[in-house]
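As the next step, I wrote out a protein sequence along with its fold in token form, included below for the reader:
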Amino acid sequence: MNTVRLTMAQALVKYLAAQFVEINGNKLPLFEGVFAIFGHGNVAGLGEALFHAQDQLPTYRAHNEQGMAHAAIAFAKANNRRRMMACTTSIGPGATNMVTAAALAHVNRLPVLLLPGDAFASRLPDPVLQQVENFADPTITANDCFKPVSRYFDRISRPEQIITSLPVAIATLTDPANCGPATLALPQDVQAMSYDYPVSFFEPKVHHILRQPPDQRQLMDVVTAIEKAEKPLIIAGGGVHYSEAIEELTSFTQLFNIPVAETQAGKGALSWDHPNQLGSIGVTGSQAANTTAEQADLIIAIGTRLQDFTTSSRTLVKDHQQLVQINVAQFDAVKHNALPLIADAKVALQQLSQIFLDKKENKKLQINNDWLTTAQANMVAWNKIVDEKTASTGSLLLTDAQVLGAVNRATDTKDIVVCAAGGLPGELHKLWKTADPKGYHVEYGFSCMGYEIAGGLGVKMACPDRDVVVMVGDGSYMMLNSEIATSVMLGKKLIIIVLDNRGFGCINRLQQACGGAPFNNLLADCKTIEAGAPVIDFAAHAQAMGAIAEHVQGITELEAALMRAKQANQTYVISLNTDPVHTTSDGGSWWDVAIPEVSQREEVIEARDKYEKAKKQQPY
């Protein structure tokens, strides 16, 4: 057997560089590169290996470990999980900084390879700098935090172990059903150890899209359910995008006049002005979608895990309604007592369409045209509300909706909006008009504050020919903004809109909706010195990191600044003050947020009474 002597770190890098993926007939590197913040746990081993492989596997310097992992995750999402990145850190805070990002990737079913350094496998120098010691178990380190938020975890305690571990990690990252973060903890002494690796281990491998065909019995059960339905509704989830089933979904809905609502991850599956489009569903849903869902007798969920915002805390599907779940993951397909069709969305829709086309030709299929007409009327009414909410009123203190309207009108069809947490995702879900399947990128599975700017960087790396517009509140900006500097350093232009409502406006509204007094959310309601909290000059802060930036007031100034931002050749930040109170309540449905059973506030007691009544809508 032919072998080559390499350190474990060198072998790992060489293996990653040998992984490719075929997309539309083109062979591309599976890994775009490696984000790295070096420390004593990875600089000598993995850092040296990466230095010699820059042509095959580029290394990108970031400013925050969580931020770089967010960027890597966003890159994978923007590539429909076809391509991805790796991230490496030192053994202590650098590693644990990535745990939040790992959880985000896990929740959203997105691939990222995490390579945190680790303490010495030999334990001879213990305790080393940054080592977390467990008094009862010396095998536990800080990296064990990754176990519950990784689809695959391994600690490489011998250099030869990567021969079996790396292929499993790659298989996890590229598996549509099991996709998520893979973590390989790398003890710093093992990184530097050498081994005679088989040359065959490094032969280039081309990965292809795995498409799970449906079980024919399950398929025919779903066919029967559709045949019985008079008022079907489709909920399109992120799996429609990841399966690249946009055309199949469009054809299927048009063939049978089925209206379509979209989750956060599914938004853009149909253009906003498509005749079958009903907009967003659930708690942040449109009146059109939620009203239609109430009237439907069959709900077909495609590629969604049906979290509580989508199902309105399990009140969306009623006893008289049939739920079908088309999902490549069995874990998701069987949720909510659904009739499951475990299959790739593209393949499932192709086979369903063919079956019903045959029935249509044989005149065995009845289509209720009135049902779509009713849904379309609902959507006409909703679009009027959207136009009203997003129109300018001439006020200098804008609502989030008015800002979104101005930005939406200023962007091109192929521009991409990026957002994550707070009130903005709800407003975007309801109000943003998406005309391109890639035009909407909102992380709302983990609703992670701080994802926005770093995620925008990852999206820009994936789609360099498109403008990326990041919508971020002042709270999220304060949590994680350092990747503005990374975007400038890498020449990856972002347009960042900072909406400053002086606090956590979304949670302040929720707090009061639950009967609570305004407390510790808006800066005015926080414990401060007599002069109050400082007024943050976000434009000056962004300028300090190399961006072009300006502060504006009102729609007219915002629109002019957006034109300048579009014409600029580097990251451009626009900040403005916004109204923390008003939000688009129209269309939203109930969300289960537990209210205290006992309180000294009458408002809380009243909210609890309403809560108990609302919970009776839930099936169990």
